[in-house]
Amino acid sequence: MNQERVFKVLLGPHISEKATMLADGKSQFVFKVAVDATKLEIKTAVEQLFEVKVANVTTVKVNGKTKRTARGLGKRSDWKKAYIALQPGQDLDFISAAE
What we know:
The protein has one domain: RRM (RNA recognition motif) domain (Alpha-Beta Plaits, 2-Layer Sandwich), CATH 3.30.70.330. The chain is built from 4 helices and 6 strands. It has helices spanning 3-9, 17-25, 39-50, 94-98, and strands at residues 10-13, 28-33, 54-62, 66-69, 72-75, 79-86.
């Protein structure tokens, strides 16, 4: 996979209470990813960017919420998130990967 696609697949980490509990207990990390990204592309992107070994990738399509506005009904965009499970002994550090 070329370097340009690597940066388009991973949009950023998804920080939530559930994601924090998974990172602490099960060594799983949650990322917002491109809607058209495949599991193999996500695995390759994480391994290249963070230099870790990925054991498993699970993806979830999140439907955007319908919101009421002053102009009527609106809809937020659909997005995709990926749960990344690392192999035993591996750890992902966001700070050192940014340097």
